[in-house]
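Carboxypeptidase regulatory-like domain-containing protein, Thalassoglobus polymorphus. Tokens?
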Amino acid sequence: MKYSALFSLAMLVTLSACGGKTDPLKAARPKTVPASGKVTYNGTPVEGAQVNLIPATNTDPAAFALTEADGTFTLTTYDDGDGAVPGNYQVTVVKRSVETILNPDDPNGPPVGSKEESFLPKKYGSVSSTDLQANISSEGTDSLEFSLTD
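Tokens:
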């Protein structure tokens, strides 16, 4: 019984020493703030589009999201839905489907190619051609609006 109590006490001390430590990598990350918004194309909400925020400075991390059926999105930088680091960003928005092309003579064999279809104007899919921008304030935002047109 004496050894059991001593063992329990030793385990308690050991386990409590393991808890409560801060991950040094997480502690070094720039702070994120909540950030969300909506994407429309010619006035219609866009479902399944990838929204990418590319920072104006090379020191901050990018943020990304996938739009819901109503076009809304919540940005992620490190952990799901954690938002974005405050700052200025260029924004790209893409929605694509990729169809695998099989060999008609060997449909069970390896694919012979693929066909990609873009559902949004290509100008929004590249940092060099997009005119979309976002500013994330230190308080965060829930009103990012990206209205895409032809």
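The longest strand covers residues 87-94.
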